[in-house]
Amino acid sequence: MFKALGDPVRLRLLSLVASHAGGEACVCDISGSFDLSQPTISHHLRVLREAGLLECERRGTWVYYWVVPTALRQLSDVLGIESTEVPA
């Protein structure tokens, strides 16, 4: 989990997905926030998914990502952060 978050791009991606309206985002929603290609962003999202921080679902041409609440709780516990904003 920490290795996946060790990259500043992935840390920012996780934050963008978590704060996106509706709690989920596709590459098309967040690619404008980076000076990176869509395939590069997709790669970083895959690393976050493989680390258990994100889940995804394909809808037509796009893949939508959302944060795994239990992963955020585990991360908060390890870091000693209390949060009431992590959904159940």
Task: Please summarize what this structure is.
This protein has 88 residues and is α+β, with helices and mostly antiparallel strands. The chain is built from 5 helices and 3 strands.
Number of strands: 3
Which quaternary structure do these chains form?
single chain
CATH homologous superfamily title:
Winged helix-like DNA-binding domain superfamily/Winged helix DNA-binding domain
Whole-number radius of gyration? 13 Å
At the fold tier of CATH, the topology name is Arc Repressor Mutant, subunit A
Order of secondary-structure elements: HHEHHEEH
CATH-defined architecture: Orthogonal Bundle
Major β-sheet annotation: 3 strands, antiparallel
Structural class: alpha+beta
Please give the order of strands in the largest beta sheet: 1-3-2
* Helix percentage: 40-55%
Mean pLDDT equals 84
CATH level 1 name: Mainly Alpha
Please report the number of helical segments.
Answer: 5
Low-confidence stretches: none
Q: Give the overall shape.
A: globular
Q: What's the number of domains?
A: 1
How much strand content do the residues show?
Answer: 15-25%
> Roughly how many Å apart are the termini?
20 Å
Q: Could you please describe the fold and organization of this structure?
A:
This protein has 88 residues and is α+β, with helices and mostly antiparallel strands. The protein has a single domain, classed as Winged helix-like DNA-binding domain superfamily/Winged helix DNA-binding domain (Arc Repressor Mutant, subunit A), CATH 1.10.10.10. The protein has five helices and three strands, in the order ααβααββα. The protein has helices spanning 2-5, 8-19, 27-30, 38-50, 69-79, and strands at residues 24-26, 54-59, 62-67. The chain has a three-stranded antiparallel beta sheet. The longest helix has 13 residues, at 38-50. It is globular, with a radius of gyration of 13 Å.
